Amino acid sequence: MFFSYSLIMGVIVHIACQVFKVIFYSLKNKRLGFHYLLSAGGMPSTHSAFTATVSLSLGLTRGFDSEYFAIAAALTAIVVYDAFRLRGAVQTHSNILLKLAAKLPKKEREKIPLMVGHTFGEIVVGLVIAAAASAAGFLVKTAAGL
User: Fold this and answer.
1) Coil vs helix vs strand at 84
2) What is the pTM of this model?
């Protein structure tokens, strides 16, 4: 094969999640927001979805007992933990800073990101998307004889 099936699946899921964010938050905020294509936080957790898709795709194609899957699963666990614990704390700090900045005169306010972390639910949705996409991709790959 001239490409990594698992990496291609991960990239497809990553792009799909970011496009979903544009649609979801544009509808929620009642205005189009293309900046969500590059956003780091919010629904769903794209980082979790990407790494879990690569892991599950490797497990399905190389075996869940393979070293490939073991390495990818370990990295996925780190990313999921980081998304929830570390980036969740950063999100809490961002919310506090936004409240404090609102008390400053407008000319003295710094731009503070609104979405940087993830809730548990956003991570779970990312993992569910990864599982569904990995299974669907594997079925298509198998049916096509690739």
Assistant:
1) helix
2) 0.83
Tokens 């794209």, residue?
46
Please write the tens of the pLDDT for every residue from 7-54: 999 999 999 999 999 999 999 889 988 888 888 778 889 999 999 999
Q: Sign of the C-alpha dihedral, residues 107, 108, 113, 119?
A: negative
Distances (CA, A) of 15 to 39, 52, 110: 12, 14, 30
H/E element, 40: none
User: Residue 86 has which token pair?
Assistant: 């570390």
Q: Helix, strand, coil shares of the chain as percentages rounded to 5?
A: 75, 0, 25
105: preceding bond cis by omega (within 30 degrees): no
Which residue in this structure is represented by tokens 């899921």? Answer: 13
For the record, the structure tokens of 102 come out as 């609102």
Identify the sign of the CA torsion 109, 85, 131, 122: negative
Euclidean distance between CA atoms 49 and 133, whole angstroms: 9
Domain boundaries defined on the chain? 5-144
